[in-house]
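Thread: Newbie trying to understand structure tokens

Hi all, I'm a second-year student working on a class project, and my supervisor (Dr. K.) asked me to get a predicted structure for one chain before our next meeting. I've only ever worked with sequences, so writing a 3D structure as a token string is new to me. If someone could post the tokens and maybe explain what I'm looking at, I'd be very grateful. Here's the chain:
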Amino acid sequence: MKRPYQILVVAALVLIGGAAFLTFNPFSNNDAVDEAASSDKKILYWVAPMDANYRRDEPGKSPMGMDLIPVYEGQDNAGGADASSVQIDPSVVNNIGVRTAKVETASLRPPIHTVGRIMFDEERIAHIHLRASGWIERLAVRAEGEAVKKGDLLFEVYSPDLVNAQAEFLQAVKSGRAQIVSASRDRLRALGISQTQIKEIETTKKTNQYVKVFAPITGVVTALNVADGQFVKPDTEIMALADLSIVWLMSDVFEANAGQLKKGAAVKAESKFEPGNIITGVVDYIYPDLDPVTRTVPVRTVLNNPDENLKPGMFMTVEIEGPLRPEATVIPREALIRTGREERVILALDNGRFQPAAVTSGMESGGKVEILSGLNAGETVVASGQFLIDSESSFAGASLRLEPSQTAAPMKMNEQASNDEGMSHDHAASDAEDQETDHSAHTMSMDEPMMAQAEGVLEEIMPEHRKVRLNHGPIPALGMSAMTMNFTVMKSVDLSAFEPGARVQFSIGEHEGNPYVIHQMETAP
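---
Reply by user tm_fold:
Sure, no problem. This is what the structure looks like when written as tokens:
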């Protein structure tokens, strides 16, 4: 009786140990269990391993020759939600400092940025000439740049004509005839003798051998063309004075912006002499001629200069107010992502979801930028942290929205793929084919597929699959670098005419949803 009992005990121990081994065996295939569990779920679509936008309803090969992988229900961005967006945990959104802004409708006033230079006010320049020939006897001003005040002595001159005019005036005064006295006094004034000197002559009854010339304005000497003892004529410019209390700012505006200029437009100027000090004014005059060398239109602004800090010849950075543009959709400037090939923004959706959207920008002004197409007023865009979300959406395979959600007309976009900032290739034609299974995909409006030309070396020919393996160089038109990959070949290409190792020239473009199909191929010379 003991032996059967022992057999039963041993059998029970074996069963218990086997169950424990199967339960806790570290080498058991958990992936097989997960795969079995996944097999119970519905396969939504098949996707290329290297391009989440390349989707098919059945297994097959990607354009790069790799096997498509299945995407099960529950794996497509949080369980069947909009596959064109990506969801980020709220704590992560808070940590990366995401800031959003509403898309608004506003009228921008883009300014004209240019440079200008300070010049003398030509209406406040005094040119000193004598009205009779004579000799400069004593100069009170010795150099250019000296400051003078109105009424200061400039120089004394001896002129026989001026002495004779004084003598005639004294004779008229002695005659007592008022009409002759008035005429003689007017002649002295016409010759440039001041009213003070005329009264002195009339009072002292003596002529002055040396006539004094005084400064007619307050300013600085900008030109000095004589010296003591020099003989001068009426056509000789003895000196020039300029008033610096008011100066001109002459700005050069390129002819492309000349149509935006308006008289009275606000002007802001800043000099390197005093950074941060903004000087304001308005457009006083727009010159009618265009400089044939610089292709610019001169614009004049009158500036007050009471402290004379603005020096003639000084350069300024100038901002001229432009005309008010029509109302348009605008977003903050920092919300726009420019990759060099396209422009896009990151839309903030509900429940922590984000989606990239292709846009076309217009003018910029005051930290705002016009959006000509791609957005609607009232939508929300990410204004800070959008580059991190843009990278996350690329890895998650979020599709690029190619048109506003409320606009029926599709927006034409550049069909070239962009990998510059982590974005996957945008195979619009492929998405259009699979629109029934992926309702978030959008089509692009294209009249015909783009064809790119390239060269490469045939490494393998697979006529039964209508494919070839090519080691090709860069294809800039498609944004592809040099690599080796499989290409589908059109039936019109005779593969029997080629051998492995041959160098070929080929044309590649889209066909039936596949963006990388060889349409033509010939042996390279």
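A couple of things are worth pointing out once you decode it. The first strand starts at residue 43 and ends at 48. Confidence is low (pLDDT under 50) at residues 19-38, 77-83, 406-448. Feel free to ask follow-ups in this thread.
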